[in-house]
Design goal:
about 350 residues; single chain; flat; 11 helices; alpha/beta; Rossmann fold
Amino acid sequence: MDYRYGELPLDLLQSLLTYEQLLQLFLDLVSRSGGDVDQALEWMKQLQARGLISDEIDLESFRDALEKQGLVSRDGEGNLVLAGPGERRIRRQALEEIFTSLSKAGGGFHAIPRAGTGNEPLPETRPYEFGDDPARLDGIRTVANAARRDIEALSLLPQDFEVFDAEHQSSCATAIAIDISHSMILYGEDRFTPAKKVALALTELIFQKYPKDTIDIVLFGDEARPVPVEQLSRAQVGPFHTNTKAGLALARGLLMRRKLQNRQVFLITDGKPSCIHEGGRLYKNPFGLDLKIVNRTLEEAEKLRRDGIQLTTFMIATDPQLVEFVETLTRVARGRAYYASPTDLATFIFRDYIRNRKKLFK
């Protein structure tokens, strides 16, 4: 797969001075290559040959440093492969990169604004109830209640006790379904890398800040398949059609196994559905909106709605047929849809993720 240098951080390339800056470039390239370490290092050599990386930088020493730090390792055949620490660095870098582009309001600990069980006290108090955490007792209000009742013979009765309320911290199960059909890299625009980067960053965010949340990654082309987190950076686009039905069905199945009430699917696509499995074979029609394919896909959207799963679709193209399909899909699922360029995708998804976690449980 060829990449235009304009897609790379040229300002970084022109000012590479430290190991960390060089590592930042390497991690970006290895993600674009689908986890191919040798390809990423070869691209760096080509960049150096074109004068985009200074000749003063010793790329062989850099490769050795990657091995010493355990970011890459050797497989059984002696080839360089990305190691576990390297996978984690890719996710962390994706998260850091995305958060620098978000407004300050985009981050923070996202509690929902109602009372419940949690670890964030509110300034408001209420009468003590059996089972309340004694550590939340408001001693001043408790004594004041007793004093108002009888200031001379001060004694505490059960009705005098007050406790600080606490915000309810919601937990959320999320599935990201990413289109890996060939159109995601056609027409001189790489739409897949930003989508994968968002999935990497959101995974790392959940690991770091919301350990009670869950995330599942689904890739869909001719078929749909789940991707383990540790293999996400290696995901690539293929010569596939777009089986949106299979992507939604697999995402729903994964979420229904999660023991959480708050469930949501983020669907990232740049094309209309163009295939389904039927009778043991792949039925495909890349031309126009095929009613058979569309109806089967809408049936999956209806199942999401019935199971109480929020569907949010992120369109990274504005093809009229795609717009028509997504509008119908959104109505059936009673979900939401956004028109986002690849560069805006992260902002939309992260803000929507945080907002969706604030839903009240029924």
